[in-house]
Amino acid sequence: MKYFAVLFFIIFQASFALSQDGSDMWYVKPEKLDKSYIGRFHHIDFYRESFGGFKLDEVTLKINGKDIEFIEHREDDGFNNWFIDQHLESVNKFNDIKLIIDKFKLLEISEKDILVLAYFNMKPFTEKMSFERKDIAQLLFKDK
To answer: What is each CA distance from 138 to 2, 11, 44, 48, 100, in whole angstroms?
Structure first.
């Protein structure tokens, strides 16, 4: 029985040594943004940090002059965090589809706000938007 316990302990410990997590993004607080991030693709985590589908925020964005409600979609368990799994999705449908913002591209930064280009699921639709840094919990940047 003693040998079984030792063998179990070794196998259990080895499983942690061989496991691997994955991520192709990193998190940046809005106050840490500088010009080196301009031109990079990212997602915006509004108001409160969202993690693993918890604390998802709703945000109202102006699209073609109309206010549209979006909710954050976060697939992040702390180990496997993939850029492609994150997005903003409209609360309501338009012409039987939900609008999805696949990603943003950082265009300009100032002390108070950022200017981005939003990429939608309805290709090739994009729209420039500006957000105040105070409304952003963090930005999720795509690895190169």
So the answer is: 50, 39, 6, 8, 19
Phi, psi (deg, nearest 5) at residue 86 = -100, 145
Radius of gyration of the chain (CA): 19
Q: What pLDDT sits at residue 51?
A: 66
Q: Work out the pLDDT band at 3, boundaries 50, 70, 90.
A: low
Residue labelled with tokens 């943003």: 104
pLDDT at 117 over 60: yes
What's the CA gap between 124 and 9, in Å, rounded?
54
Three-state DSSP state, 97: strand
Predicted pLDDT of residue 20? 53
